[in-house]
């Protein structure tokens, strides 16, 4: 298991190119299952989660190849298996995204229940419920969701009790090939939903309303191959901007999308950052110690839960006290005890972390527990007074392409230590 060694104290300075979004690429690759023809996806980030997705698609029988560093082609016409095994699903919860496409295309899917993870229980009942409303028969047996339908899924009006990103995506993909019209109410509005809808429409689907809370999908009998460029990763962008802010640095994120980051940019400005944007770049310049900012996570367009841990790190180093409230996942504060070991002053009260800024963190050996918690520890290491070792960085490799190379290029002293 690899670790990062970080010697803190360097101001980040320069330009960083943002990769394609993990959370857009994953559903888009799974949507490739919906057509027999070749789809070619560009701006695919090189991540462990993408490798897991490729493995899953190949196990199903699809042909997958890298045409260039970030360009992936999928031909799913050869799929002859319909099972996503526990072995793969346990390493990547987003494997659940094969359920809708497999069922819609082949009338049959078996997907291991993902179970909980470090950040919460994360049930998938809304995925199952929605597909049942579209006529599927679904049983959960021996840890597997076993779904089938005779003929095509049927369009339905589905109200989602809770806003779910992958739930909305699974149902949208299934509805694309259903007979009749599906309406998804209380749908997720995340930019990744819009990217998936754009991809589906390029394949010949009829999806409207993406980005609003009501999606309408007129089912079509078949979809065609196409090309698509994955949107920029807004969470990677936000992570680099926070890293720049806490090191009082000056960083320009290229290939970034400011429109997808309104809530995060406004909190960074409130913290004292000077931010300028163009169509596809965001520049942050921080000349003072950040001011602490209150944050409350909620579905898009509110503040994203995937940026919560990074803002806890910003606040523990900022001037003043702040409340960070997590409303999406019940256990997403695993970074708090690790940051406390580095000298952070944080009190946890229910789903709120109350921070009182300190002027310095001390390096320590800390453990990454999930993807964004890992990012928050790396950021803390960038400013700590002595060496920080972040263990279990396989979590960070799920979601950040070459993060240490990108940070080094900005002036950080960070190295990967390979351990067996
Ligand atoms: C691959 C991907 O895109 N992952 C993102 C996706 O995860 P994911 O799609 O898994 O998260 P959801 O939006 O589904 O979860 C939101 C909330 O709904 C609950 N819920 C969800 C489904 C369900 O059937 N029943 C239910 O109760 C969850 O437990 C959670 O409390 O959105 C999250 C919330 O923005 C992000 O943190 C993840 O990075
Ligand atoms: C929670 C995340 O991802 P996943 O849903 O894949 O676990 C994330 O990207 O922060």
From TrEMBL:
Location in or out of the cell: Cytoplasm
SUPFAM superfamilies linked to this entry: EPT/RTPC-like (SSF55205)
Residues forming the catalytic site: 117
EC numbers, comma separated: 2.5.1.7
GO biological process, one term: UDP-N-acetylgalactosamine biosynthetic process
Entry's Gene Ontology molecular function annotations: UDP-N-acetylglucosamine 1-carboxyvinyltransferase activity
Catalytic activity: phosphoenolpyruvate + UDP-N-acetyl-alpha-D-glucosamine = UDP-N-acetyl-3-O-(1-carboxyvinyl)-alpha-D-glucosamine + phosphate
Sorted UniProt keywords: Cell cycle, Cell division, Cell shape, Cell wall biogenesis/degradation, Cytoplasm, Peptidoglycan synthesis, Pyruvate, Transferase
Main location: cytoplasm
Ligand binding (phosphoenolpyruvate): 22-23
Binding site for UDP-N-acetyl-alpha-D-glucosamine: 93, 122-126, 306, 328
Modified residues (2-(S-cysteinyl)pyruvic acid O-phosphothioketal): 117
Family that this chain belongs to: Belongs to the EPSP synthase family. MurA subfamily.
Biological role: Cell wall formation. Adds enolpyruvyl to UDP-N-acetylglucosamine.
Protein name in the entry: UDP-N-acetylglucosamine 1-carboxyvinyltransferase
Biological source species: Thalassotalea euphylliae
Gene encoding the protein: murA
